[in-house]
Write a structure and sequence with these properties.
The chain is an alpha/beta fold. The protein is 31% helix and 28% strand. It has ten helices and 14 strands. Strand 7 and strand 8 (167-168) form a beta hairpin. It is elongated, with a radius of gyration of 22 Å.
């Protein structure tokens, strides 16, 4: 099964001016970068409320990410397409993918609730995460929502934080784990392996000459984990393979700081140029390092591949 394939059952609404809900909705608002376990809990809540009451479930999210709009240097865990596909897998009926612009940044939270959530979406339930704030100066807190709920007759709910092994499931903590070369820790918070997606492009053929042909990936995700070798599960055209993923600057061949992401797919010989592939990053094997010569590098890659095959047995 392809990890992040978009089906057609979920509706994506990009412009609220021409939208009017036909029936009541259970709605959530958030950035949902990575769609981690905390996000999944929120989505499950609106989906179950909606199905219990015959409502529709709707999720409001923004493009670009509000922090990016305000100039923060934030590397997103997923492309919008990957995020939307992940939300669909959780069973949401509608995703409201709204432009985050100056008008949205300045909106008064009470106007947002009245004009968008209540009038346009007919929200009977509004569910937010433990720390979510929206609207001008981030004044749209959960407490604010509760006050609005009493006034306008909807129900506001807050989903508590999800903690795994003492760590809160948050996009920030997932980024840190990946930057530290700890994909296993990121996976615990995501509820699945971190997945990168990208197009296979031509490299310089060096890996093939060394006996380990690789697919060079032009990665769509903004966050590429720490340099090193990783075990990986590769999804190509609906088929699944195992492989050794390399992220780094190829110090042994002096690649002049040019970061590469390439995967040696085991037992695979087809031409992948121009294809988009998904790579799940499973285990960190070792850091990137400079070898004295190519023979040493080749011997080490052989060891890495052997180790990865053992680690991925049964996965």
């Amino acid at each position: 099964m392809h990890v992040c394939h978009i089906l057609s059952s979920m509706e994506i609404v990009r412009d609220l001016r021409h939208f009017q809900a036909e029936k009541n909705m259970a709605v959530s608002i958030g950035n949902f970068d990575g769609v981690h376990l905390g996000h999944a809990e929120i989505v499950k809540r609106i989906v179950s409320i909606a199905s219990d009451r015959g409502f529709a479930s709707g999720l409001v999210t923004f493009d670009p990410h509000p922090m990016r709009f305000f100039g923060a240097d934030i590397r997103l865990l997923q492309t919008t397409e990957m995020k939307v596909a992940q939300l669909e897998k959780l069973g949401v009926d509608k995703v409201f993918l709204l432009d985050f612009n100056m008008e949205m940044a300045r909106i008064n939270p009470s106007v947002f609730v009245r004009e968008y959530l209540l009038k346009k979406m007919k929200a009977s339930f509004v569910v937010v995460g433990y720390d979510y704030k929206f609207g001008r100066n981030r004044r749209g807190t959960y407490e604010f929502l509760q006050t609005m709920a009493e006034k306008h007759g909807f129900t506001a709910l807050r989903v508590p934080k999800i903690i795994v092994d003492g760590v809160t499931a948050s996009s920030t903590n997932i980024r840190k784990a990946l930057d530290d070369g700890l994909p296993e820790d990121a996976a615990k918070l995501l509820g699945r392996n971190y997945c990168i997606r990208g197009e296979v492009v031509r490299g310089d053929g060096l890996a093939s000459r060394m006996g380990f042909p690789t697919a060079n990936i032009k990665v769509n995700n903004e966050l590429i984990p720490a340099n090193g070798i990783y075990s990986s599960i590769v999804h190509v055209d609906g088929e699944t393979f195992k492989g050794a993923l390399y992220i780094g600057d190829r110090p042994t061949v002096a690649d002049a700081g040019n970061k590469r992401v390439e995967v040696n797919i085991f037992d695979f010989a087809k031409n992948l140029y121009g294809k988009e592939i998904d790579v799940e990053i499973v285990d960190f094997i070792r850091g990137d390092k400079k070898f004295d010569n190519m023979e040493e590098l080749v011997a080490q890659i052989q060891e890495d591949c052997k180790k990865i095959k053992v680690l991925l047995e049964g996965k």
